[in-house]
Design brief:
Structural class: mainly beta
Number of helices: 1
Shape: globular
Largest sheet: 17 strands, parallel
Radius of gyration: 17 Å
Number of strands: 26
Strand content: 35-45%
Helix content: under 10%
């Protein structure tokens, strides 16, 4: 088994303990702007939701953001450890040094899923009408999210495995300029292009016994092109359905 899967499980368990131990920032939620600095975001409808500290969600929470969700520099938003319903009518923006986790769901044969740490059989329902834009994050976990626009992840990285799995992205997915232990782009449905560039892996590949992990690109449905460049040490992929062309480092994934 590759090191990324084991490490990712540890991250999920640790984050679940973290959110369970932290106090909630408010007992009830009122309509309007809301800023979380610690604990869990209460169920409610908010104009904007700002994450300014270490924040999560409770199992069964129902959160509606009529404008945008923002994760500030150095903040953490863990909506991947407990199943919740989150609807964002505009965009999700995550800043430098942040960590963002959206969505969890159980695995099934042929798909590892991303189990909720608090309820391995539970599933989130998370949708973003606009774009998800992440710049310079230390952690990105997007799992089973419905995105009406683009997903763009630029810069950052850490020794925590990243996952972009089981999402439906109506437009484009772009991942550029990260240095990361492991990243998997897997089981997504993407209406436009997928562009992966300047991604350097640092984690060791336990299955191979030597060398570094490749970038994983597995069983995605891509409505247009898959373009890859500067993937170090390389790319591992199979089962992708690409409507147009696969080029660069990912040329072998065509067909």
């Amino acid at each position: 088994m590759r090191s990324g899967w084991r490490s990712l499980g540890a991250v999920l368990v640790a984050s679940a303990l973290l959110w369970g131990a932290a106090p909630a920032t408010a007992a009830t939620a009122a309509t309007g702007d809301y800023t979380c600095t610690e604990g869990t975001v209460p169920s409610g409808t908010y104009s904007t939701l700002t994450i300014a500290g270490m924040c999560g969600v409770d199992a069964g929470a129902e959160i509606h953001v009529t404008r945008s969700l923002m994760v500030l520099e150095g903040a953490i938003f863990d909506a991947q450890s407990a199943p919740a319903v989150i609807t964002v009518d505009r965009n999700v923006i995550s800043a430098t040094g942040s960590m963002i986790g959206l969505g969890c769901q159980p695995g099934f044969p042929g798909n590892s899923g991303h189990p909720c740490a608090t309820d391995p059989e539970g599933s989130s329902d998370i949708s973003v009408a606009g774009n998800i834009t992440v710049n310079g994050a230390i952690g990105v976990f997007l799992n089973g999210v419905a995105v009406g626009g683009n997903v763009t992840v630029t810069g950052g990285g850490s020794d925590i495995p990243w996952s972009i799995k089981n999402n439906t992205i109506d437009r484009n997915l772009t991942v550029n300029g990260i240095v990361e232990e492991w990243i998997g782009v897997m089981w997504n449905r993407i209406g436009g292009n997928v562009t992966l560039s300047d991604i350097r892996m640092t984690g060791l590949d336990d299955a191979a016994g030597t060398g570094l992990n490749d970038v994983f690109v597995v069983r995605n449905e891509i409505g247009r092109n898959l373009t890859c460049s500067g993937l170090v040490p390389g790319v591992f992929g199979y089962g992708n359905m690409i409507a147009r062309n696969a080029t660069g480092d990912c040329a072998a994934l065509a067909g």
